[in-house]
């Protein structure tokens, strides 16, 4: 092949390149790159969420460790300090060896001292006893704000410190993640309820019917990146990451390349 | 876009300022790509209907306000224009929204949870005034959330074994009369917040100081005007949207501050 012919061929290929946008090879390469970026973003969100939970856990652990045995008043002061230092914690309580709640300090309600509420059969007591710590599934306080219950064994491992933790911070983490011009990021709990979403109006929606969410929860593991349909039936490239405790799935998705390429072409035809 | 506040320009301009500042951060710059019409009711709730009608005539895109009466007035004037409240005592209890999760209609915003926190305020008041036995409560009978809060405080205070003197006010002139009724019958006073009380906060604090009555409020601005203590969300955070709603639903503010 002569040099001139070679350039003509390459030049020709470059000229027809936009028309050949559906050609598998270049399409796939861009898709793979997009997928990698999306996956990195999903991993980053999962890591930040995990860090947030661990940090809160650390603070609760401190309160569990600093327990001055027997006396309730200093413990209450520890709890007040905890509420002040970590605004995400809205309630802290102490459950004694018999599973009775002895102190409950709250940002919202009046503190309870020497309460007799029995939690001896409650997972926050039994599980924290058995496994040192317990993280509940996500629940919504007053149907409005996502929360978890975090329980950590204290003293000789026979008493438990329980914290109610607001997960509102996750919405902040998701909101600050920019996914291209048309992409979104969201976090769902094990029931498929949206905990955080780039579009705040989607929070609390039920995504459990979404194939992607079902696959993540039922199969336990799905490909890190795949092409699927989003909640509106549009084809998207979606990346997935997981937060272990509490179990949360993080998704980052953007419309597939095909959609991106087709739109300008339609514009050009007009 | 429109904003109108139930209180006075002096107090609310700082709160609305926090909102305008936040808009700027989000790329909405006043008088460049967003126009804001301000109206101040200055504690006169009868003007709210007139403002709401005017906003509808001006075909504004969204109405921002705070407190229950202005939201009610706006709701009456339009079921189409979105109404966003920065802070309302109890949006569910007063029927502004159906629920926090699904507000419904064209109204949404942030709940102050004024009623939820009533017990907490009593607890704090008892801690700073040990041996408290007799409590005065004052609320505007024309403000639905204040009435709900007063009922809640009464119930909780009685459960704690306190004697309660409750006084309802409707106009600024009633404030002095209310304080007359507290004379010798109260050791502290719990004031339920509403625009009427906010507008007259200096008068209230002066009377309370004169009688040596510690005051408890739900907003810190009262403390800056000479009140003793408050427990509740920070209004500047609410207006700036720093307490992010968890959805388009009404939501709890992210931080609650106590001021003395």
Give an account of the 3D structure:
With 270 residues, chain A is α+β, with helices and mostly antiparallel strands. Chain A has helices at 3-16, 24-65, 72-85, 123-131, 168-175, 211-219, 257-269, and strands at residues 89-95, 101-106, 112-113, 133-135, 139-141, 145-154, 159-166, 184-189, 194-197, 225-229, 235-243, 248-255. In chain A, strands 1, 2, 3, 4, 5, 6 and 7 form a seven-stranded antiparallel sheet that branches. In chain A, strand 10 and strand 11 form a beta hairpin. In chain A, helix 2 runs antiparallel to helix 5. The radius of gyration of chain A is 25 Å and the shape is elongated. Chain A starts with a helix and ends with a helix. Residues 259-270 of chain A have low confidence and may be disordered. Chain B is α/β, with parallel strands linked by helices and 260 residues long. Chain B is 38% helix and 20% strand. Chain B is built from ten helices and eleven strands. Chain B has helices at residues 9-25, 48-57, 68-77, 118-128, 144-159, 174-182, 195-199, 201-210, 221-224, 235-240; strands at residues 2-5, 37-40, 63-65, 83-88, 107-111, 134-140, 163-169, 188-191, 215-217, 229-233, 256-259. In chain B, the strands form two sheets. Chain B has a six-stranded mixed sheet with strand order 7-6-8-9-10-11, with helices on both faces. In chain B, helix 2 packs across helix 3. Chain B is elongated, with a radius of gyration of 18 Å. Classes of the chains: A alpha+beta (270), B alpha/beta (260). At the A-B interface, helix 5 of A face helix 4 of B.
Note the beta-strand portion of chain B.
Answer: 15-25%
Mean pLDDT rating of chain B: 83
Let me know the largest β-sheet of chain B.
6 strands, mixed
Number of β-strand runs of chain A: 12
- Which class do the helix and strand fractions of chain B yield? alpha/beta
Q: Work out the helicity level of chain B.
A: 25-40%
